[in-house]
Amino acid sequence: MSKVKKMTLTCVIIAITTLTSNIVYIPVGFAKIFPIQHMANVLTAVLLGPIYSVAQAFIVSLIRNMAGTGSIFAFPGSMIGACLSGLLFMKTKKLLWAFAGEVVGTGILGAICCYPLATLILGQKAAVFGFIPAFIVSSIGGALIGIVVLKVLLKNQTLQGMIRKNSIFNRDL
Known about the structure:
Elements (H helix, E strand, L loop, with lengths): L2 H18 L5 E3 L2 E3 L1 H14 L1 H18 L6 H19 L2 H27 L10 H24 L1 H10 L7
Antiparallel strand pairs: 1-2
């Protein structure tokens, strides 16, 4: 797939994810849980790879924060999950590992990385593991949606050929 097509697909995913941030979110304390971001991370990781996935996560987090629909916690959570999801899928070529990468990257590692942000930047006293339950629930739900969307797309013969042909490294999914 050419760079222009990859950037275009990334921009479409960014647009859909950003637009839905006003509709689908769950406020939990001073964080906003956003399962659609996790779905986008899995889709981008599988279709385009870790670099585009991290770029997509960063841009969506930035736009959401500038628009007032996100929180500062979107950056470490979504970017770590997107990176780990893309790297694990790239190494294994298994959708299950893309799912696991998103859940572990966002739900555990990203949640732990939010602790310094909460204490240093926001001045909030938060438990180190206070973010983990909310982030895990959100990432499991969103990553499952992403896997279901990919499975549905792969059942369509026309889309299946396009996805398999144009996925990163021209590999079978």
